[in-house]
Amino acid sequence: MRVPGALFAARGRAPQSEKDVPFQEILPLRLKNTVSGKADSGSDVACLQEMGVLFACLKDNEFVEKYCHKEISQFQNCYKCYMDRKFEAKKTVNQGIVQPGSNLNYKQLNKYMRRYPNPV
């Protein structure tokens, strides 16, 4: 009599023994002293809620801007505040002020890690 394969699949695969697979260190097990700047190049989305309300108003009023004055001004105020915050953040980054524990960009992280390098 043949045993169907579905009976064995329900239990899953047995785990492999760690003794059968020895650890091989391919790269050194330590962090690098630098961080790449790839993560900081992401896109910033500002005032998404206000933009959605503005587009909904424009759609309801057949894209006539004079009926959506309140929504337009709210979006412009939000965007102005966003740009002011972004300018201030860029100004502190360019000054090179490093405050550990806060959200640092890659340049500040690299500067901080140069002070305390990883032992070789």
Question: What would you note in describing this structure?
Answer:
The chain is mainly alpha-helical. It has a domain of 49 residues. The longest helix is centred in the last third of the chain and has 27 residues. The relative contact order is 0.12. The model has no long low-confidence stretch (mean pLDDT 84). Keywords: Disulfide bond. InterPro entries: CHCH, Cys_alpha_HP_mot_SF, Ribosomal_mS37_met. Pfam families: CHCH. This is IP05433p.
Give a quick precis of the structure:
The chain has helices at 5-9, 48-60, 69-95, 106-115. The protein has a domain at 45-93.
What is the element layout, followed by pairings?
Blueprint: H1 5-9, H2 48-60, H3 69-95, H4 106-115
Helix pairs in contact: 2-3
Pfam family, one: CHCH
Protein name: IP05433p
GO biological process, one term: mitochondrial translation
Mean pLDDT: 84
Shape: flat
Number of strands: 0
Helix coverage percent: 40-55%
Describe the structure using short key phrases.
120 residues, mainly alpha, 46% helix, flat, disulfide bond, CHCH
